[in-house]
Amino acid sequence: MSTQVALYTKALGELLANGARPDRINKIHIILGKKDSWSVVAQGNSRSSRSLHSKSEAITYAKRLARSKSANWVVVHNKNGDVDRKIEIKASLTD
Amino acid sequence: MKLIESSDFSIHDLSRNNPKTLDEPVRFNMPLELGLAMGCRRFGGEKHHRKKLLILDKDVHEYDKYIGDISGQDIESHNDDPQILISKIRHWITRLFPNREIPFEQQIWFHYNQSQSEVKDTVLNSTKAPDSILDLEHIDFIRFTKDWIVALKKGMRNFTLTLHRRNRFGFLRCISAIVN
Questions:
Q1: Which of A2, A75, B18, B147 has the most crowded Cβ, counting Cβ within 10 A?
Q2: Contact B132 A2 (CB under 8 A)
Q3: What is the pTM of this model?
Q4: In a structure prediction context, what are the per-residue pLDDT tens digits for chain A, which is 95 residues long?
Q5: ipTM metric
Q6: B128 touches A at CB < 8 Å
Q7: 3-state helix, strand, coil in chain A (%, to 5)
């Protein structure tokens, strides 16, 4: 059985909050959209850059978007909203 | 109990009564809290008479099997789908506050996904952290998520102002993104 530990601190909360800033895009998210499409959403944004039919298409587009915005990660979510996997983006690598 | 007494609005999801493992007993926290909230509204006098409750379950009439006396309340099902859950709660809030501007379901869903990612990266990598978001203390999860939402709103405002300094078109576009 798991044990629960209270661990909130203001400093940790502030660190986490950095991820909500749209002026410092470090992540591009791939999120389930409407009608089983996959939406590519830049960090801190409310709207998708593009919606695509398949997850693999969305990953390809997200990698390109990440490079253009100098983001370091593409975060792929599952249908429940949890993180499925993270893809590190390195400027020198190609798709 | 203090929380129930002081809350004008409450959401009770009855779908999580089942134990996580075979060894665990069935959990009655949610039905108990619902009963307290209903009792508070019924017998708590003028102060509690206007309490608003939303009851959720996985299936439409799942609750009939174990609590038959709650029909006539606001009861919705979510089919264990977080997008449906967001939609149902948003709809309930919209009905309660028809003049307030509530973000669209899609926006809430996108932000929920993003905040999950940040909690995972930041909080679960810290010392003493549990293995899963599900094992976080509920109050911790709320505090972290609240910080994230506050930063998101603040960041959007700052972003808007920065764009405003750069050009008016960018400003208008950003305002449009926030409003919509």
A1: A75
A2: yes
A3: 0.80
A4: 445 557 888 888 888 888 777 677 899 999 999 888 999 999 988 899 999 999 999 999 999 999 999 999 999 999 999 999 999 998 655 54
A5: 0.87
A6: yes
A7: 30, 25, 45
